[in-house]
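--- STAGE predict ---
source: upstream dedup step, 1 unique chain passed
mode: sequence only
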Amino acid sequence: MDILSTLPAPAERRLAVRVTRQAQQALRQGHPWLFDRSIVSQSAAGQPGDLAVIFDDRRRFLAAGLYDPASPIRVRVLQHGSPATIDRDFFVDRLADAAQRRAPLASTETTGYRLVHGEGDGLPGLVIDRYDRVLVMKLYSAAWLPHLPALLDGLVDVAAADWIVLRLSRAVQSQVAAHGIVDGATLAGEQPAGPLQFRENGLRFEVDVLRGQKTGFFLDQRDNRAQVETLAAGKETLNVFAYTGGFSLYAARGGAPLVASLDISAPALDAARRNFALNDDAAAVAAVQREFLAEDAFAGLARLAREGRRFDLVVVDPPAFAQQQAAIPGALLAYERLTRLALGVLRSGGTLVTASCSSRVSEQEFFAAVRRGAARVARPLHEFAHTGHALDHPVRFAEGAYLKCLYAVVDDDQRPGGIPTAPLP
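--- STAGE serialize ---
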């Protein structure tokens, strides 16, 4: 079925929206969201995907974007400051700019990366990931549905692909059932035969773009994985929340003699095994001792500690613990507990790499939780790097800065000698 033919066409009308002074200030500063509570009045009820034109108190143009009546983010802003026609050519320009930002990746043997990072690329609520010749388009707002034909038409001009897949957030899935649109639908091309593969810094990975988390792979940690590779030589490594083994493979190629991958999902670890096999042509990967531990991360770390297992490098990359504001206190306790447990299996002089992808938890709150965890077990952390977003995950507003990672060496004698202090490149 051609799902594009089932979509509603973009409405001819334009919603005129007036907003609070606080919202006016935020929009003048380029904020990509207009919340429902900031709307003072609008000219009509509005349907998903209607173009909303936002005016200030003097009826001057402020911004324009896509209206979503089902979301607290009522308008996803596409254009600030001056009017523009939102059509195929508009999308082509935004997509071309996004592709140009990723141009440096061409020299890194990388064919898997984020082509469009929503708000960071001026297309809020939309993500497009590339896995070699496959593109995965994920919608976080039903407001994009009427504009999919124009967007897809423009995408074909900018990024050649054999298959384009549509993924939907849970919220959007519940809104599109009436149109017969399902998560994982084909937008263009045909599904290739056999498992899909891509390269990241020369390593090969398989990806399940139909059933995998997010769009199939956590592309945002590419730079941190590469840094772990530089730290892994001679270090027995534990990768917690390993998923399909990204950090594990980098550690192996970096010279770790043993890599243990811990994840609650047995199917994810099966994929990790296959990813190792894909890279056995690299001598260091072929030589590494591999362990795959299918269990809860908290319970697994506690068990390893009881059994006396110790590692020289521990990577902790958990899922987002705070999806809502009310979950922040629990998330901070979880980060603190994970730090205590990770340090329970880390040798003195070992390296801890721990990350958070919870956008509602600030960098300062996350780092403070890690430090509290270390203090509770009296294991001082000598932090030598903090990292954030890679170039294919650009950030243009405060709420968009979700990824943060802390690198530290544990020295139980509090001796700083030999501890790297320069920031990672």
